[in-house]
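Pasting two entries for a bug report.
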Amino acid sequence: MFQRVKHALLPLLVLFIAIPAFATENYEVDATLQQFQRAPETEPFFATAYGYAVFPSIGKGGFFVGGAHGSGQVFKDNVLQGESKMTQVSIGLQFGGQAYSQIVFFQDKRAYDRFTSGSFEFDAQSSATALTEHASARAGTQGRSAQANENVNHAGYTNGMAIFTVAKGGLMLEASIAGQKYSYTPIIPETI
C-alpha cells in the first residue's frame, strides 16, 4: 500500500517543486524585460527588433582566469520561442566578480537565425552598452562608433545585433562579451 501511495505522490512532488522554479524564472525574465523596456536606450529596440534574448542574471568572476554563466529566454514577435544558456571563459587581466542582466536584440531574421542555430559566439568586435553607472559606459574588447566600424548601422546594431547590460552588483575590472557562447533549445509546442 505504501509503495502505491509513494508512486502516486512522486509526480505531484516533482510538480510542486518544478512549478515554483519555473514561476520564479518567468518572474525574473518579466522583471528584467520591464527594466529594459523603461530604459530610454533600449525602448526603441522593442518596437523594431525581429526578436530578442533576455538573461535576467549572469554571474561573472575571475582572477586572471575568469568565467561567466547565465540562463535566459529567446523571444520572436514578443512570443517565447526557446531557452538559451550563456557560458564564457576568459584569460587575461581581470579581477573580481559581478552579476548583471543582459539583452540581445536581433535586427532581422538572419541575426535571429544565427543566434538560435544552437551554437553562437560573439566575436572580438562585439560590445555591449552598459545602462548603469556601475559598469563602464561601453563594455567590450574594442570601442565602437558608427564612423570607426562599418559593421555598425544607423539603428545601433552591430552585425545585426545590439547588446545591452544592466549591472546588478559586484565589481569587476574586465567587462568583455567577446567569447560569450550561447546554446539554444527551442520550446516544443504541445501536441493535442
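Entry 2 (this is the one that rendered wrong in the viewer):
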Amino acid sequence: MKLREEARATAQLIAYERSDLAEQRESDYRIVAVEDAEGLKVALAAALGVSVTVAKERRLFIWEGVRIHLDRVEGLGHFLEFEAVTGEGALDLAAAEKRVEELRRAFGLEADQLVGESYCDLAPADPNA
C-alpha cells in the first residue's frame, strides 16, 4: 500500500496485489482519492509505521493503450516500466501482453534486465521509522 503525493494533483491511497516476479505479470490495485493527505499520512504512520519513502520523477508516455514510465528514483537510479491496463473499456489480457512484449523487444530489454520488486522493496528502510 502506498500514499501517492504529487504536485498539482489529488493525493491517492493505492493498495496493490501482485507478485514480485521479474516478468510480465498481472497486478490488481485499488485507488482512493485522498483530500487530506497530510492527515492520512500522520494517522497511517501512527497506526502502521512508515517502512520506506520513495521519491521519484516520472515521465509518462502512452503507446497503443500501454503506459510507458521513465522513472528516476532517488537513491536507486533510472527505470523503464510498461503498464497495460486491462478490463472494461481497455485492452483484453492477450492484447495487453502482446503490446508489452512488442515494447520490450523494441527497447531491447532482455529477461535478465527485468526487476520484479517494487521501488519500496529495493529502497533502504526509512531511517525515521
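Dev reply: Rendering is fixed now. As a check, the viewer should reflect this: The chain is about 25% helix and 35% strand.
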